[in-house]
Structure formats: structure tokens, C-alpha cells
Amino acid sequence: MRHYLLLMSTIFLTISAVAGSVAADDAPEKSRVLMLTESRGFEHGPVKRKEGELAVAEVAMTQLGQKTGLFEVDCTQNSEADFTKENLQRYDIVMFYTQSSGALPIADEDRDYFINEWMKQKGHGYIGFHSASDTFRTNDPKLNEEFRWYWDFVGGTFNGHPWNSKTTVTITVHDPDHPTMKPFGKQLVIKDEIYQYRNWQPEKVRVLMSLDMTQCEPKRPYHVPVAWVKEWGDGKLYYNNLGHNAETWTNPAFLESVVAAVEWIQGSVEADATPNPELSAEEEAKAKAAAPDYVEPPKKEQSNANKKANRKRASAKKKKTDSPK
Ligand SMILES: [Zn+2]
After folding, report:
1. pLDDT tens by residue, 78-129
2. Domain boundaries of the chain, sorted by first residue
3. 18: CA distance to ligand 1 center in Å?
4. Ligand 1 mean position, distance from CA 247 (Å)
5. pLDDT tens digit sequence for 276-291
6. How far is the CA of 252 from the centre of ligand 1 (A)?
7. Which residues of 216-242 are buried (b: 16+ CB within 10 A; e: fewer)?
8. Predicted model pTM
9. CATH of domain 25-290
């Protein structure tokens, strides 16, 4: 019986493929995308909804899906209500342009389902933009361990942005033949805010572009990755740090790169996601040579005793709000 069913479905597939080639209706099924743009701390301009209208980044992704016919986007800023096991089953891809100093209100069972089951399925994927790495962020080492599931998955955690939104940076595209990188060519010069990372694990990601430290100001003696991919079971992850500035969301190369990422997740386009830690090591060496005299600010050189004393002093003071990311 099982054999019969398989055989029947093969015949059916063959017939529909032939029929499709004539009727041109064999386009792959559209992916359903859930785009989360929740901010808990600092809200970026491109995710700010005005008068109930969708935000710039939400409009950009919705229109990109319509224009290409590849995907349909539902937008939410409420992870508590919408990032649930039940709701995730309606989607193929999740996009994050989130920000949370601390956790997003995602229940443990929904998190476990997402990371251990949903994300590992063929045709499923995660696309992270800009401050998605400034999510589940904490300076508390204990809490940082609790958030490991997120940064271990995404690739790293936001750790400041010496290159702010008014800085024009030069970015090296390491693999211009990679489908998601083709739109950028070999080098990208762009005005956008660039993050540096902690919790960064080069052995787990394939870095696709990085700051060219020889051409950027200020210079720092370490590798600053800008975009990367990785596989997660049969699912796929694409991360791009760009997107702080609204202009990036109309940048054709940026949008084409997202299209390629969707096609890769869907399986219609092949792309290499082999981790390339050797590239991170090379970029690290280049950056060191470009900024040999850079000294970390005193804050990072504090002894543990000093840190404790500072924490005590800080907690006695009124809490400051986060500076814009
Ligand atoms: Zn930003």
C-alpha cells in the first residue's frame, strides 16, 4: 500500500510537472514570513510605526515579497502573542529586526520548539537584520548564559558600534559569487551603523562580508564581520548587520541579497554555508596591522574588584536609559 501511494504520487508529480511546464504555473509555493520588529529599549527608525501604518522595514519586506512573488509577510511587534509554537507552524521563515536589552517575552516551550524543531526543518529559515543581535543582550555573565541559546544561534551579541549611522564604511565582500553577496560586488561602500560583537564564534558561521579595517575610521584591531550564514539542521540562517538607516531599506543590493537568502532557504538556490574560521583569523590579523596603536578604553581593563565596586556605585545611582543603538 505504501509503495502504491508513493508510486501514485510520483505519477501525479510527473503529470503536474508536465502540465506546469505548459501552463507555467509550476512556480514554487510562496514562503510564509513572520517579521518580528519588537523593540524593548531602543526603537530604530525603520521599525517605528507611525499612526498605525507599517514601518519602513516592514513595508520594504512586504513589497519585496509581492514584487518577487516569492514570499508573503505578516508583521508583528508582539513576540509574546505571535512567536508561539502554534503560530510558528503557519510560517516558513522568520525575520528579526528586534532590540531587547534583556529578554523578549518568548515562553520557554515556544523558544524550545523554535530552536529545536521548527528551525531545523527543510524550507525553514531565520533572517536577522541589524539589531537582531542586540536582542537577549545582557552584561550579567549569569544571564548571558541563559541567553546562550539565542546568541549561539544568531552568531554573536552586539558590543557597541564605533561606526555610527553617519559613518561611511568600506566593506569587503569575501565571496562575491555567493548568491547572497552577488548584488554587492567585491566591495561595498555604505553609510550605515556597524556593530562589533562579543559571544562571537567564528567556527560556527560562514562570514560573507566584513569591515575593511584598512579603509575605515575609527580603526580597531579586531575582525568585524558584517554578514554571515549558517545551517541549523535542515534550516538556514542569514544575518546582515546593515539596516540601521532607512536608506538601506531601499538599497537595491541589500534587497536583492535578501531575495537570494529567501531562495536559498526555499532550496531553489544552492549556497555554501561551510564555516570559515580561517577567514576570521586572517581578517583579525589584517585589522591588528591596521590599528597597531589602539588601546582599549580603561573600562575594559578594570580588575574584577574595581568592577564590583563600580557596579555597587552604579546601582546606587538612578538608572540611566540606554543610549541609542
Ligand atoms: Zn542601530
Report:
1. 999 999 999 999 999 999 999 999 999 999 999 999 999 999 999 999 999 9
2. 25-290
3. 49
4. 13
5. 999 999 999 999 999 9
6. 20
7. beebbbbbbbbbbbbebeebbbbbbbb
8. 0.84
9. 3.40.50.880
